[in-house]
C-alpha cells in the first residue's frame, strides 16, 4: 500500500500549525472565560504534534528510499548521479593535470612493477584460483604511466596498492589512473573513480565507507539534493558499487594508525574495488606491525628513474640554455650511482631541478660541487630550499579557462616563502596536509576565536534589531538584537564546512514544508529561552512592563514568527541541482553569497517578523529597554545552547565560514603573518606549482616541501629566541 504523498504531509502540517491555532484564537469569544487566557497554548501544542508526525513520516520514507525497487525512479536518479559525478571528476582532475603540467613537456617516464617486499597476498588470492591453477606462482606485473589503467582493469578483484619512495610520483600516477579509468568508463561503463586524499581519515573512529561518503558530500554537496538525485545518493553510490575510491597517501595519516588502516581496508566488503597509494617503507612497517596484508590486492612499486629518462626530461620542451645541463648530464652518465644521480632519480627532485634552473642565469653545474653536495640529502635539501624563490622569479600565465586580470601581481620571493612557511608550520602543528580556507580560524588563538564568534553574532543581532525596531522602536529593537547577538556569540562555534544556496523556487515548494518544521522548532527554542529569562527576571523582582504572562505569550508568538524566517533560510541553504567541480575559490564565493542571503532572509526577516508579532500580538505588554535586554539575552543564549547540543548548528553570521575566514584573515594580516588577499595568494601559488589542489582544499606540492618549510621555520624561530 502506498503511503501518503509529500503534498499530503505538508498539507496536514500546515492545517495543524496554522489553521487550528488561528481558528481557536479567532473563535475565542465562543469559549468559556476561564479558558481564553490559555488559548495561545494552541500554537506550541500544534507545532509539537505536527513536528512529531512529520518526523515519523520522514523516517518511514527514508527507510523506503534505502531499498528502491529495481527499475524504479530511485535507481534512475542514482545512475544520473553517477553520470554527473563522472563528468565533474573528469573536469576536476583534467584541469589539475593541466595546472601541474603533467603532459608538458614530455612526461617523465616512470615505470612500476610488482614489489618484492613481503606485503602481498598470494597470486591465487589476487588473480583467482582459476588463473594460476593451484601452481605456486609469483605475481609479476609491470608497466608505466601510459598503461596503468589498462593493467588495473585486468585485475579480477580491481584492488591495487601503489608503493613508492617519497617523491616517486605516486600522486601523479593516481591522477593519471583516475583519468584513464574515466576514459574507459565513457566507452564501456562501470563505476566512477574518485580520487581522495586519505590524510583526514581516522580508522579508529570512522569506517572507510562512512569516510568516503562524508568526503563525497563535502566535495560534491549537490549529491545531498534529494529532489534531483534521490535520498542518500552519496551513501548509495558507495554501498552499491558505483564508486572506485582512489585513496592517495595512506602514509599521511599518523604512523600509529597505519596498521589499523590496513586492517580496516581489508575488512571492506568483498568485491569492493579500490586503489591505495603509500610510501614503501611505511607500508611494509605497517604490514609487519599488524600482521595483515590487503587480501586480493596487487601491490606494485614505482621504480627509480634512470639517467636516460632524467636526461630527456631535463632537456625536453625548449628549456632556455639547455646546453647548461651538458656537464651535469655527463656526470650522471659517468656516475649513475652517485649522490646527484640518486637525488634526481626521484621524479619530485627532477621536477624541482627543472624549475630551479629554468632561469638562464641559473647554472646547474653548481650541483657538481662535491663539497656542498656530498650526499643525496644535501642535493635534495638544496633543491627544496631553492624551489620557492625560483618559482616566484617570473609570473606564470593564467590557466586557459581563466581570463587574464590586472589584479595578478608579483610576490617578493622572500615574503612568499615566509607566508608559506607560516602556513606549513601551523599545518604541521595540527597534523594535517590539507589547507582548507574554512578552517583558517584554527590558526588563531582560542581567545581570538571567541571574539570572532561574538563579533559575528553582534553583527547578526544588529541586523535583526533593525527589523525588530518595526514593532517596539529602534532603541528597543537594537537593544534586543545586540543582547541576543552577545549571548549567542559566547557559545558560537565555527561551522565545519562551507554552505551553499539554491535560489531556484520551481519544484521545491514541498521541500519548504519539511524545512518549516525545523524552522519553527528553532524559533520556539529561541522563544522558550526568552520566556525562561522573563521568568528568571520576574523571580528577581524585575518589572516586565505588563506582567509575566504577557511577556511569555509575546515570547512564544515572536518565536514562532521568527521560525518562519529560519525555515526560509534552511530551505534556501540546500545544494544546487548540478554537481560542480570543487574549488577553493568557488566554495568561498558560494559561502559569501550564503552569508548575504542569510543576513537578509534569516536575520533581518526574523527581526521583522518578531517585531510585527510583538506589535500585533503584544498581549498588553509595554516593551521597554529591560524587556529588550531580557528577551535578547534569553533567546540568544537558548540558540547558542541549542547549537552546541545539535552538532554545530548556528544561525546568522556565526554560521558563515566566510565570516570566520574573513575575520581570522584580517587578524593574521594585521600581524604580518599572512597576506591581506590570502585566497589570491594561494591561487597564485597553485598556478606556480608550489601548491596543489585536491577538491576545495590546497596541499603543498609534496609533503616533503611542507615538512622542509616547517622545519626551517621552526629552526629559525628557535635561533631567534636563543639569540
UniProtKB/TrEMBL annotation:
<feature type="domain" description="NACHT">
    <location>
        <begin position="158"/>
        <end position="312"/>
    </location>
</feature>
<dbReference type="InterPro" id="IPR007111">
    <property type="entry name" value="NACHT_NTPase"/>
</dbReference>
<keyword id="KW-0812">Transmembrane</keyword>
<keyword id="KW-0472">Membrane</keyword>
<feature type="transmembrane region" description="Helical">
    <location>
        <begin position="554"/>
        <end position="572"/>
    </location>
</feature>
<feature type="transmembrane region" description="Helical">
    <location>
        <begin position="593"/>
        <end position="613"/>
    </location>
</feature>
<protein>
    <submittedName>
        <fullName>NACHT domain-containing protein</fullName>
    </submittedName>
</protein>
<dbReference type="InterPro" id="IPR027417">
    <property type="entry name" value="P-loop_NTPase"/>
</dbReference>
<feature type="transmembrane region" description="Helical">
    <location>
        <begin position="625"/>
        <end position="646"/>
    </location>
</feature>
<keyword id="KW-1133">Transmembrane helix</keyword>
<feature type="transmembrane region" description="Helical">
    <location>
        <begin position="7"/>
        <end position="27"/>
    </location>
</feature>
<feature type="transmembrane region" description="Helical">
    <location>
        <begin position="39"/>
        <end position="58"/>
    </location>
</feature>
<feature type="transmembrane region" description="Helical">
    <location>
        <begin position="476"/>
        <end position="495"/>
    </location>
</feature>
<feature type="transmembrane region" description="Helical">
    <location>
        <begin position="516"/>
        <end position="542"/>
    </location>
</feature>
<dbReference type="Pfam" id="PF05729">
    <property type="entry name" value="NACHT"/>
</dbReference>
